[in-house]
Design brief:
There is one protein chain. The protein is an alpha+beta fold. The protein contains 6 helices and 10 strands, in the order αβαββαβββαβββααβ. It starts with 9 loop residues before the first helix and ends with a strand.
């Protein structure tokens, strides 16, 4: 999350960030990266002192191959242990290297749990975070009587059977423009906790129960808190009404315990 002085509105801060980016971009090429990573061994996306992060590893690789300090801007700040198949970032550089060469060179200088799947040159106005209109997440649950050693790093194992029909009814209460403070991680209160959720679905493929959600923005810890809440109220006599009550009360203590990070993946960031 972006730290904002209390006297500034969200719009003021966003405009200031974009204005600074434009000044930098006017003197270089604006390069967009699409990134996949296994977040198991990282303390999230954003740079943290003395901790391995995805942003730091990509910055180091780019700085090495391009020859000047580079700081990438990410579309979403995934937490410790969260994965991505469609994270997006951009950076500005004077390099004459082609996008194909940049992609091959970055991947050659990254560990095998971070991969740059696409590199392209974009308009000066493009900003990975502020130009985004939708972010898409997937949460994966292994739902069967016994765990799987090969899926332990990217699924949440639950042996109790999940009733898909009941869970899908709960999901539909999430769709719309609402205040989702009930699902916001404590200590990270955003000034405006209103998000527009476009889709929220839960499906089953064999032993995997997959929750997908798309929204214009997400609060910190929001998806994991939603999953924990669905699991908490699933046996409730009227679970959909209970979810509506939790959302309306805007009280984190009424929602469920956050599901583990390992089941969560940022799958796509959409623009335009």
């Amino acid at each position: 999350m972006l730290t904002r002085p209390i006297h500034q509105s969200n719009g003021d801060v966003s405009k200031a960030c974009i204005d600074r980016s434009k000044k930098l971009i006017s003197s270089g090429r604006n390069i967009k990266l699409t990134i996949a990573y296994d977040g198991t061994n990282y303390h999230g996306w954003q740079i943290q002192p003395s901790q391995p992060t995805i942003q730091a590893k990509i910055n180091d690789a780019l700085t090495k191959i391009i020859g000047h300090p580079v700081s990438v801007i990410g579309a979403g700040r995934t937490d410790k242990g969260v994965h991505a198949t469609g994270q997006v970032a951009n950076f500005v550089s004077h390099t004459n290297m082609s996008t194909d060469i940049i992609q091959r060179a970055i991947n050659a200088n990254l560990s095998d749990d971070i991969v740059i799947s696409e590199v392209s040159e974009v308009e000066d106005s493009f900003h990975a975070r502020f130009s985004a209109t939708r972010r898409c997440y997937r949460y994966t649950i292994l739902n069967r009587p016994y765990p799987c050693p090969f899926q332990r790093k990217n699924t949440f194992f639950i042996s109790r059977h999940i009733c898909l029909e009941q869970a899908e009814m709960i999901c539909q209460t999430l769709v719309g423009r609402n205040n989702y403070a009930a699902f916001q991680k404590k200590g990270s209160e955003r000034l405006n906790p209103v998000c527009n959720v476009f889709e929220a679905n839960l499906t089953r493929t064999d032993d995997l129960v997959i929750f997908t959600i798309q929204a214009d923005a997400f609060l910190r810890g929001m998806v994991r808190a939603i999953i924990g809440t669905i699991l908490k109220i699933l046996q409730h006599q009227n679970a959909a009404k209970e979810m509506e009550r939790i959302i309306a009360n805007r009280n984190r203590s009424l929602a469920g315990t956050s599901a583990p990070a390992k089941g969560l993946t940022l799958t796509a960031v959409k623009y335009g």
